[in-house]
Amino acid sequence: MSRRSVLVVTSITAVLVIALAFLVVTAAHAGSATLAGQPWTLTKLVVDGQEHALSSSYPITLSFESQDSSVSGSAGCNAYGASYTIVGNQLTFGSMRSTLAFCENDDIMVREFAYLDALGRVESYHLDGDTLTLQGDNGQVLMTFQFTAST
Predict the structure, then answer these.
(1) Does domain 36-147 match CATH 2.40.128.270?
(2) So where are the chain's domains?
(3) Which residues have a Cβ under 8 Å from the Cβ of 62 and sit 6 or more positions away?
(4) Which of 48, 53, 88, 134 is deepest in the core (most CB within 10 A)?
(5) pTM of the predicted structure, to 2 decimals
(6) DSSP, res 83
């Protein structure tokens, strides 16, 4: 093989390796960036095998902040927050803190307590487009969220 052919093959190989490395790094960052920086609205809540009815008048929301690994949102009546840790698709939340406003409707309070309890049981997550699923023990679906477009 001539010296020129070796140089051409080496150059092409180097360009392909750099392009592949760029794609891998971009894909890794895209996966973590899509979870954070977007508001999510709860569309399904299952606790102890029982699905809870949700209210469009009192939506439950979740937002991840990657800079300080914190979550915040509305549990329906009260605001809440916590830290979070992600390793692969494993997700855990730290101690929850919440405001203590009195909610006039008992159903809202029951749903709020169930939601905050379910967050404490989360072990993993799955992100598929605009849908975020939080799972507990043995992959049991606890919650499903939908991406909420900013207005």
Answers:
(1) yes
(2) 1-35, 36-147
(3) 39, 40, 41, 42, 71, 73, 132, 145
(4) 134
(5) 0.75
(6) E
